Amino acid sequence: MEDSVVIQAERIAGYFLLEQVKTSYQIVGKGTVNKVCVVETESRKVVVRMNDSSTFPSFIKEKWCIEQAAAVGIPGPRVLSIGLVNETAYMIQSFIDGDNGLDSTIRKSYVWKQLGEYAKLIHSIQVKGYGENLIDPVRGVFQSPSHPGSDGSWEGYVQYNIHSLTEYDRLIELGVITQKESQRVRKLFENLKKETFRFGLNHGDISLKNTIVSQAGQVILLDWGSAEVSVVPHGDIIQMIQCQILNERPNVDELKTFLDGYGISEKELTALKHLLLLRAFDKLRWAIDRRPDLVEPFAAFAKQVVNRIMD
Question: For residue 220, which of 39, 166, 212, 278 is within the disulfide window of CB 3.0 to 4.6 Å?
């Protein structure tokens, strides 16, 4: 299987570079969505990321995000080409020399502080709309797909999750919340409707694994596949707290270092816990509707969030 992935990457890179491939290999274990290979010719070295054709809009979004991030001073790879070959979507990026953030010997606190500074810059990028789909790269307009119960807007997202809190709620059946807790959650979500939030671009997966640290100590940010327009700065911070709950990084000190780099304290983010609960419930409802195989882990996570917030 790995050989066929590498051969496909060689073909794509060779067609773009118009040179004979010298060496190539697959990067395994650093990404969970795309197949990633490094391909080298006599004069060039590139990274080829591949997935099925349905993911091509995500590559368009990633290219746009990388270019916008570079414009505000965030180091990243250059996108050399994106396209479709048969049923494969691909992105060719410049190769960046260095160590993955997980493997780098540089102090992790240094990387997290840099990421905090980057997040503030990301949240300053001019965007419009709400959601994970980039529908107009020229004007930077994002959209969230509508579904039964929600028109795809932020208000629709919150209202959908309020309306879902009924006495027949699957979340009660799954043991995530009790009937009494459901009433408390409803009030918390109703209060979110009264909050005035700022919306901006979120990277969606700020983590050590999505960085390369160069020999000179520069932190390069990778992988914009989860980028979306949502509440800032809360969205990216919520994603990191989710990782904490799952016993992943950042740890408590690393998150504090990230917030220091950003220039904000957790105390200033008054709605953070309630937004975390909203996202956990919404993801679980999505799994109930679309991915029954994920219901169990998503329910377990939502229960952890409930325990954290309701105590």
Answer: 212
Does residue 153 contact residue 144 with C-beta atoms inside 8 Å?
A: yes
- Mean pLDDT, residues 132-142 taken together: 98
* Token pair 């200033």 in the structure block, residue: 268
Q: What are the distances in angstroms from CA 165 to CA 145, 157, 158?
A: 21, 13, 11
Does residue 74 surpass a pLDDT of 80? yes
Give pLDDT tens digits for 245-283. 999 999 999 999 999 999 999 889 989 999 999 999 999
- As given in the structure block, the two tokens for residue 75 are 């180091």
Region 107-122 average pLDDT: 98
Write the DSSP string, 214-266: -TT--EEE---TT-EEEEETHHHHHHHHHHHHTT-SS-HHHHHHHHHHHT--G
**Beta strand 35-41 with 21-27: parallel, antiparallel or unpaired?**
antiparallel
Phi, psi torsion values for 174, nearest 5 degrees = -80, -5
Three-state DSSP class for 64?
Answer: helix
Whether 84 and 53 have beta carbons less than 8 Å apart is answered as yes
The burial class, CB within 10 Å (0-12 / 13-18 / 19+), for 193 is exposed
C-alpha to C-alpha distance for 171 and 165, rounded to whole angstroms: 8
Cα distance between residue 47 and residue 77, in whole Å: 9
Q: Are 8 and 88 in contact (CB under 8 A)?
A: yes
- At residue 2, the pLDDT reads 60
309 and 180 in contact (C-beta within 8 Å)?
no
